[in-house]
Specification:
It comes from Streptomyces diacarni. This protein is mainly α. It has helices at residues 9-23, 30-37, 41-48, 51-75, 81-97, 106-112, 119-140, 147-169, 174-202.
């Protein structure tokens, strides 16, 4: 439309997401968000609402991008839950090693700053973590382990995932991160194998 500046909303949202990802919610100032997106404060408010609304939209965009990758990895090894977890961590480590995006994980960054978030955003972050846990839990379901063990393993995998993100921001090397992930995968595989052995023994 004549007289109005045209811009790609999706691209602006991606740039805002990177600011939140790199700086965290508290330190992502409107000036920084405006500089990254190329939008003035008025345009930011007019397009996305307030900072909390923009942050929520960025969380959803992040979750849609990487959530789809997690789902694909976890679903690629039906009948082999241990291998599915390995594939999940491959995606996680690939994201961490990707030089085109900020270090770490937006969800982990946001979870660490939960006390500074508005209630709605805090609920959203917890919901995204729970969605991640549910995805992993579903991939583990094709196992003879009891429900409690599978619930604990799913929580464990998500905890390791979040830890990898935090460690990467602290400068931990790729080799060390892969060692952590490898030990986590071994723990999952050993736990599932033990459950299967116990189930066979009882049979």
């Amino acid at each position: 439309m004549s007289g109005r500046k045209q811009f790609d909303i999706g691209a602006a949202l991606d740039q805002a997401m990177r600011v939140f990802w790199q700086r965290g919610y508290a330190d992502a100032s409107l000036d920084a968000l405006g500089s990254a997106t190329g939008l003035g404060r008025g345009s930011l408010y007019g397009t996305f609402g307030n900072k909390e609304t923009l942050f929520g939209a960025c969380l959803e965009r992040y979750a849609s991008i990487y959530g789809a990758q997690y789902e694909q990895a976890l679903a690629a090894h039906i009948g082999d839950p241990a291998r599915a977890v390995e594939a999940f961590f491959d995606v996680v480590l690939g994201r961490i090693a990707d030089p085109s995006v900020p270090v770490g994980c937006l969800i982990a960054q946001s979870a660490a700053q939960s006390p500074t978030l508005k209630e709605e955003n805090g609920v959203q972050v917890r919901g995204l973590l729970d969605t991640q846990r549910q995805r992993v839990r579903a991939a583990l379901a094709d196992s003879s382990a009891d429900s409690r063990t599978l619930d604990e393993l799913a929580t464990f995998v998500v905890a390791v995932n979040q830890s990898l993100a935090v460690l990467s921001r602290a400068g931990t090397s790729d080799a060390e991160l892969r060692s952590v992930a490898r030990l986590a995968c071994t723990t999952v595989a050993d736990t599932l194998a033990r459950a299967s052995s116990e189930d066979a023994g009882q049979g």
